[in-house]
Amino acid sequence: MRDSNEAGLGDETTVDESETLDLEETPEPKEISQPEEVPEPIADEPPLDDASEESASAEPCSLQRMGEVGELEFIQSCVGSDDGDMLNVVNQALANDHCGIARRLYAHQALNGDAAAALAYAQEFDPAQHTPSTCFPEADVETAIFWYETALGIDADNAEASQRLEEMQ
Question: Composition bias, kind Acidic residues: at what positions (predicted)?
């Protein structure tokens, strides 16, 4: 048993009966209206999903597709295609400020054994060969070294990568 000093006993709290719920009263169900009919599209209006059909029909590595789908989706479909010249796709991406696509394609190709991609990516960061751009605003020696080392790991006889790496270290 609680003592009268505990909360709830001995205080003079009153309950306004209008605030209590009457459990026996239930609100009347509201009538659900039928949805309005959606008009059929006019023949001149293309269906809403035409853009996705167009991007699906566009070449997987096309400039058009770069602007229509997300970076990851573009990369996945492009590297899974037979569009062999990835450095050309990278150059298109760079020229059109699709920086994320360019960087990801460079890295993907280089890490999957493309020495030319590793060398080209290293050159984007190499202070001696760097040209400031939207995608590569500044040179970065450490990053250049990493990609030159990657190129040499793929092709140990790559004279340019070997020479630049020696000069940078």
Answer: 13-26, 37-53
Which positions ≥6 away from 118 have C-beta within 8 Å?
109, 110, 147, 148, 150, 151, 154, 161
Sign, Cα dihedral of 33, 34, 40, 45: positive
> Could you read off the pLDDT of 47-65 as tens digits, one per residue?
444 444 444 457 899 999 9
Count CA atoms within 13 Å of residue 61 on its CB side.
17
Token pair for residue 120?
Answer: 């080209």
Q: What is the percent of the chain with per-residue pLDDT over 90, rounded to a whole number?
A: 60
Q: What tens digit of pLDDT does each residue of 11-39 get?
A: 454 555 544 444 445 445 555 545 445 44
* Contacts for 121-127: CB closer than 8 Å, 24+ residues apart: 121/147, 122/146, 122/147, 122/148, 122/150, 122/151, 122/161, 122/164, 126/164, 126/168
Domains of the chain: 51-168 (1.25.40)
Q: Is the pTM of this model over 0.70?
A: no
Number of helices (H), then strands (E), belonging to the chain: the values are 8, 0
AA letter at 126: D
Token duo for residue 95: 């020229």
